[in-house]
Amino acid sequence: MQGQRGTRRTGSGGGPHRTYSVRARRSRSATTVRDNRNRFVAGRIVLTLVLVAAGLKLVHIQAFEASALSERAERQRTTIIDIPAERGSIVDRNGAELAFSVETRKLWVNLRQMRKDWAEYAREHPGSGKDFETRAAEIADHIARQVPHLVTEQDLLDDFHKDGSFTYLVDDVEPSVAEKISKRFPEIGYEKRAKRVYPGEEVAANIVGYANWRTDSPEVSEHNLHGLSGLESYRDADLVGTPGRQIVDTAQGADVVIPGTERDMQAATPGSDLELTIDSDVQYELQRSLAAYVDKVKAKGGSAVILDARTAEVYALANHKTFDPNEPPSSPDAMGNPAVSTPFEPGSVAKIITAVAAIESGTATPERELSVPGSMRVADHTVHDAWSHGTQNFTVTGIFGKSSNVGTLLLADEIGPDRFLATLTKFGAGRRTGIGLPGESPGYVPPREKWSGTTYGNLPIGQGLSMTVVQMTSMYQAIANGGVRVEPRVVKAKVTPDGRRIPEPAPDSVRVTDPKTADTVKNMLRSTMQGGEYAYSGTAPEAALEGYQISGKTGTGQQVDPRTGGYSDRLHNITFAGILPAEEPRFVVGIWLDAPDTTIPGGSSAGALFSEIASYLAQRYNIPVSGDPGQRVRLVR
């Protein structure tokens, strides 16, 4: 039994325990296989889902987002730029150009990109001696030699060494020169620009004005020239045109235009031309004569205007000082136009208002005689004539021919202040003429309700009110035109880009007086130019022009002394208005001299200057000489 227990077999599997162990291992192995299989299946499922999602995304992009993404990519490498519009020209009445534009280029450089490119070149080519500094020096030297009148080499080097990432280098470069520079040095780009040219330089500069590039206002396009003074500013909307638009491709990471990629989106529309009433030859002569006379009589300044007697078109309008718009001054005041913007007290030249009111009312005739003392009391002050005399018998013609203040006031008393004011108003005093130039002053006439006792002792003799030389000349245009005052104007027509000529609206007109009164007053004022003995001599025999009848009037208005606030005994406005010729008026000329030295020859009268201007007009326009020289009339009995 014991032996049997020792030899007892547990079976070939090693007994029950061994059988259990084998089964366990088999079970774990099967589980592992199943787990691996499950993970593989799951991975395949996930991968399939990812691929499906990617495919769906690709389909979505290609089907729905392709256009938007393409557009976004296009925006990243394209730029829209404005194309400057050609600014309209300004021409005189004969077609001579006073202002026009020429196409130019403005050079620029992307400093950031240039520094980057040449730093990489220096790293890749050590020892070449070429880097940003040498390249900048090379470009600066070349450009300065190509356009020495526009920029210096040092100026360009300073620009290349600015802290910014971009800078402009030089403006007004000729297109062909700019293209050659850019072709040789790809770093240098350019913008299309235009330059305003004024071939007459100072001729009519105060009328035409000045245009340049503006970036000071968000409402004003920086891609067009814009007017800064004169008609360039006043009629900017007509002249400026509409810029076009262009698409260009730019290099990646830079604002450098890739040559040959320009595509127009919208063509620029040129501005309209302006045709003026000005005759540039007459304008030149008036400016020259006025400036010389102002210097001769040592005046502080002066202005003059020439109007067509019938249409009131401005043939010339000048100031003693002007400017060259090709090189405009830094001060805006130098670009002003005192002829329309600076009113003054005209003095006796304004007695034409009293003369018209007196003749029209029937209270006076040219031959009527009045007893005129050398002075008279008006309210709290005494009015004197310009020369000492006792009581004398003046004809009404003589009162104006010799410019008697006392005689004028005697007639004004007969007229009455209300009738005088009505006539003054019809002459346009205190209102802008509508000449069509910027900065025009209306002048000043005191309101009727504010007249004091001395007001009516001043107004009839041209004191206590103010007007511009254009307003003053416009009054005489009314007399020359049979009593009808026409608004003066400087623009005759607009010519559109397609060649259509559009005349300016017809100027307003006002009948100041009847033709008979106008003709009577015009003939009375011929006496101003009479010379000889006292009884016949007018105030301006030097204004006469041989062979022609002239009608006109002198004026001497006291200026206010800035030190005392009262009228000055030494500062005067010297004025003259004349009609050429008197029998068939063609032109009216008005002159104002600001505080000339009245102690030197010519300083107390502008008559000699009028005669010089009238002589030029008569020759230029072949005005026939007067058939009847006219009879001298006695002014003092």
From TrEMBL:
<dbReference type="Pfam" id="PF03717">
    <property type="entry name" value="PBP_dimer"/>
</dbReference>
<comment type="similarity">
    <text>Belongs to the transpeptidase family.</text>
</comment>
<dbReference type="GO" id="GO:0071555">
    <property type="term" value="P:cell wall organization"/>
</dbReference>
<dbReference type="GO" id="GO:0051301">
    <property type="term" value="P:cell division"/>
</dbReference>
<protein>
    <submittedName>
        <fullName>Cell division protein FtsI/penicillin-binding protein 2</fullName>
    </submittedName>
</protein>
<dbReference type="InterPro" id="IPR005311">
    <property type="entry name" value="PBP_dimer"/>
</dbReference>
<keyword id="KW-0812">Transmembrane</keyword>
<keyword id="KW-1133">Transmembrane helix</keyword>
<dbReference type="Pfam" id="PF00905">
    <property type="entry name" value="Transpeptidase"/>
</dbReference>
<dbReference type="InterPro" id="IPR001460">
    <property type="entry name" value="PCN-bd_Tpept"/>
</dbReference>
<dbReference type="GO" id="GO:0005886">
    <property type="term" value="C:plasma membrane"/>
</dbReference>
<keyword id="KW-0131">Cell cycle</keyword>
<dbReference type="InterPro" id="IPR012338">
    <property type="entry name" value="Beta-lactam/transpept-like"/>
</dbReference>
<feature type="transmembrane region" description="Helical">
    <location>
        <begin position="41"/>
        <end position="59"/>
    </location>
</feature>
<feature type="domain" description="Penicillin-binding protein transpeptidase">
    <location>
        <begin position="302"/>
        <end position="613"/>
    </location>
</feature>
<keyword id="KW-0472">Membrane</keyword>
<dbReference type="InterPro" id="IPR050515">
    <property type="entry name" value="Beta-lactam/transpept"/>
</dbReference>
<keyword id="KW-0132">Cell division</keyword>
<feature type="region of interest" description="Disordered">
    <location>
        <begin position="1"/>
        <end position="31"/>
    </location>
</feature>
<dbReference type="GO" id="GO:0008658">
    <property type="term" value="F:penicillin binding"/>
</dbReference>
<feature type="domain" description="Penicillin-binding protein dimerisation">
    <location>
        <begin position="83"/>
        <end position="251"/>
    </location>
</feature>
<dbReference type="InterPro" id="IPR036138">
    <property type="entry name" value="PBP_dimer_sf"/>
</dbReference>
